Amino acid sequence: MSSSKVAIVRTSPRTVLEDYHRVMNLAGYREVIDPQADTALKVNISWHFFYPSSSTTPWQLEGVIRAMKKDGYDPNLIHACHNRTVVIDAHLGERENKQLNVVEAHGLRNVHLYEGEEWVNIRDAVGDLTKEFLCLNEVYPNGFSIPKRFIGENIIHLPTVKTHVFTTTTGAMKNAFGGLLNEHRHWTHPVIHETLVDLLMIQKRIHRGLFAVMDGTFAGDGPGPRCMVPHVKNVLLASADQVAIDAMAAKLMGFDPLKDCKFIRLAHERGLGCGDPRQIEVVGDLDAAAENWHFDGPFKKMTFASRMQHKIYWGRLKSVLEWSLKTWLAPWAYIASVLYHDMYWYPRNGNGRVHEALRSEWGRLFHNWEKLTPDERGFPDVGPAPGQFVRNTKQLLRMGVGILGTCIKEAPEARRLRGRKTVPAPVCAGKRD
Structural domain of residue 57, as residue ranges? Predict the structure, then answer.
């Protein structure tokens, strides 16, 4: 029997809570998640606005929490866990994506890693493991910090099935990116695949148990993790092998994991997990696991922003602009991202796609989430679709202005200029502010 197992099950709103319990147990989560240790549910917020397939869904969080409570895990030892990104407002995101509703309904702790949490130097946390890093020693010659609370904790990653303009696909391995690296993690973008492998090595060293539960009720195709075309796919995945679950998600989307996803291949070659679907034990609904969705991928119809990012990190603008992202000038990139994504793309393109998605069963479940009462299996009634846009362009632009202000105020470079304390962030040799 293969040592790498991925559970894949079909689901619907009517059975989604039951299905989360099933997929987690098929994948053997109780064998790796120690009930005596604190467990972090690592929430993914790829956009503070709701956008189907972009961020952890409320039913994903609800299903995992209910499954753990049903299986005897102490809710006092379970908490939601969020990181901060300079272009994503995590507090707005947990409200807009209705994750906070779930956390508060279950009375769980809600941890924001950049607010009052202690961070420790990676060399103190993992010792000689740093000698095995593929790239992080070069990106951060003076080291970097990770959250101290992660050491000895279980972690369950809660990604969604989607494509990504930097890594082709994104999932469990990428979900560690925000939580383990400080606010200068954009420095790693030119070596993002190697970075994800280094982060997986760190996770295997520091966490008591490591598991992932991936939501594919909506799946995103295109220039993700934000500006995608969402598709209803009705699948859930779970695994203790972060490489294997990402490989099977990539396979469902129509990619060859070892050829198309460098981070999966690198991790597979180093024995950090199994990236070859032929060697993975798949359990659950095998007909669902055999599907091929034939996604176009992130590079066929890139947005203006994603094309520019590629040119800055890997193309002809690299020598012209990339250096500025490691200096006090870096906020220009954060501002540009908010202006494009939040104040242009979402009102012009995204809002219509969201409105259309809200007419589906999963969209109606999201829209009516606060008003619905589930039974033990799921949601027998998902309520009506909205008759008009949930937010009009004027409201979205007003929100965008607020996000822009927060982005500028909370940028680590701005904090440093104000003399305020922030998470320790070593400066790259030869690129000092």
Answer: 5-300
